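ok so for the tutorial part 2 we go from a plain amino acid sequence to predicted structure tokens. step 1 is just haveing the sequence, like this:
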Amino acid sequence: MLAEIKGLNEECGIFGVWGHPDAAQLTYYGLHSLQHRGQEGTGIVVSDGKTLKGVKGEGLVSEIFTTEAMTKLTGSAAIGHVRYATAGGGGYENVQPLLFHSQSGSLALAHNGNLVNANSLKHQLETQGSIFQTSSDTEVLAHLIRRSGYPHLNDRVKNALSMLKGAYAYLIMTETELMVALDPHGLRPLSLGLLGDAYVVASETCAFDVVGAEYIREIMPGELLIINEDGLTSERFAISTTKAICMMEYVYFSRPDSNIHGINVHTARKNLGKRLALEAPIDADVVTGVPDSSISAAIGYAEEAGIPYEMGLIKNRYVGRTFIQPSQTLREQGVKMKLSAVRGVVEGKRVVMVDDSIVRGTTSRRIVSLLKEAGATEVHVVISSPPIKNPCFYGIDTSTKEELIASDKSVEDIRQLIGADSLTFLTVDGMMHALGQEGTNGYCLGCFTGNYPTEIYPDTLQYYYQK
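step 2 — the prediction. this is what the tokens look like for a chain of 467 residues:
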């Protein structure tokens, strides 16, 4: 799916290493494997046991971490971040990891997720004298840690984490420790690996494969891992936990070669497609998927339906970051710069177009038009998730409620707007069945059902439900 066009964007990705002489280099490769989770900014902070140093910037991993930049990053511990701006917006100051220096030592933070009580906490902290250097909700944790009255850092961190509401996977590094924390619902994926004697932490397990680390286990909801020269210690900062992993990690965000809760993402998407074929049988000649995240579901649909899968759509991978402004015609039909329909595959054919989701509907309408312009006689759109009717408050940019086409339009209304011959969304029950689950326990389906695992604060609601 073309996230840049359609308004559905990744959250962020984090990666950390403790106890390896090439920590910065490993973090570079780890972040490169997580680049799909954020393309707006990236950074790495390293520790040599005495000081913390960082390099960050707006751009891709390969753009920011030049050979010259990497020579500045020496140490046996590092944390890194790739960012897609949700809370706080863009700007260099918001690129992570955030690095803070004080007389008592330094602290670096990297965060994946979104805090739903950030504004209320900021207001409270500012009335107590805090001055924020960024507009990112990530900085809230640094102030809470600093203002905690506990004598030991571990206790200050646990106290601060207990005040946060929402989705957060945190890497917290000092000169002598790396701390890893996951919110009490485990809304974001976060895993622990081992590379020789070094510990590795990553948002997705695909990063372990890239650096050669062995997957150990997932970080548990409400868990705080403390890694230092004495080894690894696990503590709890939240006693009451209810697992609710974001379902969109399976549907769209994570890489196909990652595993979440023991389920391979590619396999999960294939199963979503197979279930969709059972719920939406269509008499057609060819099945195609919208690159890249919908390919697995399209293969599953084709296998179950007994219809050939073909590459009816080709993605142009060299236009994502161009400094050349396109003409007005191309600006209005920007999807043509991202995708091309393969006339030799779809001409004269009844096509099943598999996609993972519909947000605003504009991209789906343009892709249906592309296929018909290439000679498809029919285009049947099938979606491997239920309609997205509600915004996400936990770090995924699903816009405001009024911009979500399914929030106030029926499936038939959407079908007419995108110009498809038919339109079918996967049901919630079908989605859970495809993942081998009896019910929705253990998953966040807020964008589909409107049932969120945490309290949503009024100032947050005001932004997302603005009219």
